[in-house]
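Forwarding these from the shared drive since the link keeps breaking.
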Amino acid sequence: MSDDLPEQFDLVVIGTGFTESCIAAAASRVGKTVLHLDSNEYYGDVWSSFSMDALCARFDQKAEPHSTLRNASYTWHTKENEPETGESTWNRDSVLAKSRRFSLDLCPRILYAAGELVQLLIKSNICRYAEFRAVDHVCMRHNGEIVSVPCSRSDVFNTKTLTIVEKRLLMKFLTACNDYGEDKCNEDSLQFRGRTFQEYLQAQRVTEKISSCVMQAIAMCGPTTSFEEGMQRTQRFLGSLGRYGNTPFLFPMYGCGELPQCFCRLCAVYGGIYCLKRAVDDIALDSNSNEFLLSSAGKTLRAKNVVSAPGYPPVSKDIELKAHISRGLFISSSPLGNEELNKGGGGVNLLRLLNADGSREAFLIQLSHYTGACPEGLYIFHLTTPALSEDPAADLAYFTSQLFDHSDAQIIFSSYFTIAALTSKSAAAEHIYYTDPPTYELDYDAAIANARHIFGKLFADADFLPRAPDPEEIVVDGEDPSALNEHTLPEDLRAQLHDMQQATQEMDIQD
């Protein structure tokens, strides 16, 4: 570690995952000195995205005892020198030749267009570092086929999967859900209190197809979901409609691994220092100053506070982890579903899968080359479910059977792995704030809530990620704002603004 590195910081953050990066950016933004370390050579940890070569290399590594990524395996379904044919122009060699064109997420997420993360990105002005694409289709399985669920009013009346009567019933039902809660004494609130959302649907006498649309793809709930929660989920879906496309969802261009880096950029702009491939060798608490003493690369640093992702020694040497999320990642030369779902080469499709009794679920995200996540002609399938065991392939077997047993998908590559969660903390690290590993959720709400909670504990009187000014809004003391231009600024600030302009993009939703 460089000799000119400061020896004292307000905050040292270990790990560059999404939650840790949120905390680092928030602290740096309010004027705290921040050192952000990661023993990996890449940003994001289990929230990261990888090229094809890098993903295989990561899976080939022997898992560390306290790593949150475990049970990883992968299989090529084509031979190394298999000749290309007219039906399929892809084999192992041709895929690896385009390794850098892939952006393969360990922990993919879909964003609600009016959800917590989108609001935070806009409020903090971090959206200028990111680029998104609207999800093209929200899908469900009906009669053994994958079909698109109509989301917008125009979709409802243009779809061929519903009859005219069903279209009217669906619009009437969605309108009633959207208006729910405006009258605190409405009949539904009283009549269905303590009952399930499914019972409410049955009482509305909607058809089985409409009930499936609502339960599987709109409310995304199960047979035991309460009436109140089902209404809230439906309203969340409807509240994000019409903002950026026909569906209420967004997906980050070039993979979800871009999002932690957006927060890291903001942290660096406000003075945060980054050191990748730097591990913390030892950590202790100075009883006199109540500060942490961190030993790294032969240098001792002092920190008033330490935040760490689980799985980073030495702060994680006595913690316990257990399987939390089972993941499957597949690469195919053909998409899932019919031509209608994949017009023009496809985009982003979201599908929620259920087991026979509705007690288990999994989310499938299908990506095409339009997301910047893979080369043209290939498709990525991300499959995620809550872990039941240390065998992710077994946990996902029911859902992979649903998807692939009777489909024409030409799978070239398949992989399975587990993301573990923290079950107990080290007694020696009781003063260190641990972030939570990724939880099973569609959006980033739990991760943001975790970041807010830890930041509030660290800096109770500070605002969490206030808006960062645009470069042209920065005024040097004594300058006339109306006459401000890049050439009137000091050289160091001019260089900083140039870097910001290079890294900055307005939040751009791809067609």
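-- next protein --
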Amino acid sequence: MMTVLMMIFFLMFFCGVLSFLFSYKHLLNMLLSLEFMVLCLFIFLFYYLIFFNFEQYFSMFFLVFSVCEGVLGLSILVSMVRSHGNDYFLSYSFLQC
């Protein structure tokens, strides 16, 4: 049973990786696929901790850091949209600040 769940979680994670690789034009799509990968890792971690009867305090720390990562990504998105007017990566010039 655990091997089937692990295969499902790895499949979900690699679907998130593929969506991250193929959505490189928009920053918002990249952030959404990163959050999907983080949620897949959280579900895998939660089931792993429950299956082996470990304490779930680490899952709370993982959720706190993933929320901080999401907030940081959204703040970067808002600052880029305010400064450039869109979230296309191809329209940015990374040589100038």
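The helical segments are 2-22, 27-51, 57-84. The chain has a mean pLDDT of 86.

- D.
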